[in-house]
Amino acid sequence: MSLKGKVALVTGSTSGIGLGIAQALAAAGADIMLNGFGPADQIEKERAGIQAAHGVKVGYNGADMSKPDQIAAMVAATAKAMGSVDILVNNAGVQFTANIEVFPNERWDQFIAIILSAVFFGMKAAIPVMKARGWGRIINIASAHGLVASPQKVAYVAAKHGVVGMTKVAAIELANEGVTVNAICPGWVLTPLVQKQLEDRAAKEGSTVEKVTHEMLTEKQPMAQFSTPEQVGALAVFLCSDAAKTITGAPLSIDGGWVAQ
């Protein structure tokens, strides 16, 4: 399918899952606004690389996703610079683990701001633009942890469950506006960060990457196989297609059977 003429804003897209989604949308012809943290030279390399590879316009906005005013300004700047915001992918996230009784208050606030509230503020800013054009796709990157729980992830699980609930509300409100709203719920995804964690764990335990990979995957998933950022990106592209025009309000698992258990 072609997304030529569409504009996609993808938060947290300078690496990992977000970058994979941005690349997939660009490959389908969409112009892209990247967002996220990282070294300026690395961000520019990714931006220029996507633009050159796919012949689309690619910009970058460094909005802090914990700041509502910056989120609204990013949506407005994207619409001004690129003509619209047709596709919004709310992907930005953070990670930290601890038991509830010792979970730092400031970490709780950070998680709720970046994972949950940022989705609300992004949708609030983008929905009027989409409604005015009579077409839009909002894709919220939730998690298997938006559907089930694991210990020591209280803020992450709470926030991701909230994202799934918010997705359903927005889908109902926009059901007849030409705008769909869905949540992608990945399990284990092999990003560069996860790969490094596997290598570090193997070195620490005097084991092999293959062994610790199998142990980590099968602790949660029946399928001993990672999803990839490219596969998550392909699912996002499908959700933007005409084939998916009546799919809305759905939490879509891409998790090797994690939540089927």
Structure description:
The chain is an alpha/beta fold and 261 residues long. It folds into two domains: 7-187 and 228-254, Rossmann fold; 190-226. The protein is built from eight helices and seven strands. The chain has helices spanning 16-27, 40-54, 68-82, 105-133, 154-173, 192-205, 209-220, 229-239, and strands at residues 7-10, 31-35, 58-61, 87-90, 136-141, 179-186, 251-254. Strands 3-2-1-4-5-6-7 form a seven-stranded parallel beta sheet, sandwiched between helices. The chain is globular, with a radius of gyration of 18 Å. The mean pLDDT is 97.
Low-pLDDT ranges: none
Distance between the ends: 34 Å
CATH class of the largest domain: Alpha Beta
Count of folded domains:
2
Succession of helices and strands: EHEHEHEHEHEHHHE
Helix residue percentage: 40-55%
Please summarize the sheet with the most strands.
Answer: 7 strands, parallel
Rg computed from alpha carbons, rounded to a whole number of angstroms: 18 Å
Q: Going across the major beta sheet, what is the strand order? A: 3-2-1-4-5-6-7
Structural class: alpha/beta
Number of extended strands:
7
**What's the CATH architecture of the largest domain?**
3-Layer(aba) Sandwich
Q: What's the number of helices? A: 8
> Which term fits the overall shape?
globular
Q: Percent of residues in beta strands?
A: 5-15%
**Would you identify the CATH H-level superfamily of the largest domain?**
NAD(P)-binding Rossmann-like Domain
- By CATH, the topology of the largest domain is Rossmann fold
